[in-house]
Amino acid sequence: MSNPKKIVLAEDNSVLSLLLKFRLEKEGYKLLIAVDGKQAIELIEEHDPELILTDIMMPFVSGLEVISHVRNKLNLQTPIIVFSSAGQEEIVLKAFDLGATDFMSKPFSPHELVIRVKRLLI
Amino acid sequence: MNENLHLLESSNDSSPIIVLSWWLSGIFFLIIVLLILYVKRLRNHLRVNAKIEAKYQEEYESCLVTYLYSGNEEEAFSPEQLLIISELKESIVDPFKRKIIISTLLKLRNEISGEMGESIDKLFVKMGLLRYSLAKLRDKKWDVIAIGIRELTQFKIMGVNKLILNNINHPTKEVRKEMQLYLVHLYAFKGLEFLNVLETPLSEWDQIQLLEILQLNNDSQIADIKPWLKSSNDSVVNFTLKLAKLYNQFEAKDELIKLLNHKSEEVRINTISALSHLNILEAKNILKNSFNERSLEEQITFLKMMENVHENSDKPFLLEHMHHENFEIKSLVMEILKSINFEESDLYEVETKKTITA
Predict the structure, then answer these.
(1) A17 is a domain residue
(2) What residues of B are in contact with residue A112 (Cβ under 8 Å)?
(3) Calpha distance B229→B240 (Å, rounded)
């Protein structure tokens, strides 16, 4: 059996992280959870995941800084899906400028997220 | 020993003010010590409470996630879900645990949509939390009422709008705001019917929030805005003018033109702006004829409107106001003249320069 694909999830909402972890692990992925951007960067550097899911607003290091670090410092082309809230449209554009692959506006459907994850990890 | 005796004697001999200050110092010192002990105890109590809260929160988060993944398509609630609900029902009797459960549900409800979101709403009702939210609406404290309405909004509890509408003219603006958000969140344009009876002012911030919710709702059934344009509440009229602009309400043309003679200057200015946005040319002649009777702000807004809807026939009117005493008006007039008659633009350019250097 091949190794499960690794996904780093950077999200400060513990219950949402738990829900997504449950759902994506059921689909056969390995989830690495970070509660802030700083932890997310550490996990990305350590595990080199196949996909990154990140919220924009997080304590210490924001989602934008995570994208910038991955694209400019680590020079990785790992797909990144950004979670944004209503009213963060301009930040989403910045995220795309920095190299985000896709975005989902909160509140989002976990089923839709799974479809997007599967599409990116074919 | 002798030294101590000497100190005691000297203190007895000292003046009453010094004795009093010694006493006061002692009392203050005691108060400070007691306060430090109280703060320390309070801090420990809060820490213990935070630990207990975190423990329960973790437990309820895991319960909630398990509940969401235990559903099946055949039944409204699967046996596993019913088991979780009965466990949670026991906890909600305790106000401390109830508060944690509600905050856990909201923490997830605000982030997810679709079937899972709806499943959380069902859980809220099935657990009996709706009863507690409705009880909050009858509370004497305004903040409790506001929280109750907000819970009903966040869990999308429909059918209690009549109960909530009782607070339409509540003396506290926070309660009124929550009531308005509930109605518009859940009923979109239909929810705006509260504008028919609103007597209190609708603040600018309230208006922005309502417009944002309406836009997120994507409701294609836009309400008839005409009655609100006739409201005696100026803030309702101003809000409706924003709706007219945002949703291109040409149908309300006649009511909009009537508002050009409204008693409030703010309403008149917003009306000119809405008419300009909708390109209603009929309004141009009315405003041209009453230009001199209007306030400076109205005149400027009208000329800004004319920038987009000018014609050759407007030239005499514009020439009449080319030497207006207000710089902004003069400059707008010349700009419009320049775009009407490009050949004569050099002449207006010279006039503009003269105005600036004057």
Answers:
(1) yes
(2) 114
(3) 6
How many domains are there within chain A? Answer: 1
Distance of alpha carbon B299 from alpha carbon B272, whole angstroms: 10
Contact A25/B at CB under 8 A: no
Which contiguous run of DSSP H or E holds residue B297? helix B296-309
Q: DSSP readout, B183-240?
A: HHHHHHHHHGGGGGT--S---HHHHHHHHHHHHHHT-------HHHHT-S-HHHHHHH
**Cβ atoms within 10 Å, residue B111:** 22
Q: How confident is the model at residue B26 (pLDDT cuts 50, 70, 90)?
A: very high
Q: B156: buried, middle or exposed (CB in 10 Å: 19+, 13-18, 0-12)?
A: middle
* Residue contact B114–A18, C-beta within 8 A: no
| Cβ-contact B294, B302 below 8 angstroms | yes
Amino acid A80: pLDDT: 97
Strands in chain A per DSSP E: 6-10, 30-34, 51-55, 80-84, 102-105
Range of the domain at A106: 6-120
A23 touches chain B (CB under 8 A): yes
Q: Residue A73's domain is classified under what CATH number?
A: 3.40.50.2300
**Domain locations in chain B?**
34-71+78-127, 136-218
Residues in chain A: 122
Give pLDDT tens digits for A38-94: 999 999 999 999 999 999 989 889 999 999 999 999 999 999 999 988 778 889 999
Tell me whether 0.85 is exceeded by the ipTM. yes
Give the chain B residue nearest A85 (alpha carbons).
B111
Q: Does A42 touch chain B (CB under 8 A)?
A: no
Residue at A1 is within a domain: no
- Amino acid identity, position A2: S
pLDDT number for residue B353: 64
The Cα of B247 is separated from the nearest Cα of chain A by a number of Å equal to 20
Nearest to A111 by CA among B115, B78, B72, B71: B115
**Closest CA in chain A for residue B112:** A107
Q: How far is CA B348 from CA B303, B308, B320, B321, in A?
A: 16, 19, 14, 13
Residue A84 domain-assigned (yes or no): yes
In this prediction the pTM is 0.78
The tally of CA atoms less than 13 A away on the side-chain side of residue B255 is: 16
User: Which one of B69, B112, B212 has the shortest CB-CB distance to A109?
Assistant: B112
Percentage of chain B with pLDDT > 90? Answer: 60
* Record: contact A107-B111, CB cut-off 8 A: yes
Give the number of other CB atoms < 10 A from CB of residue B182. Answer: 26
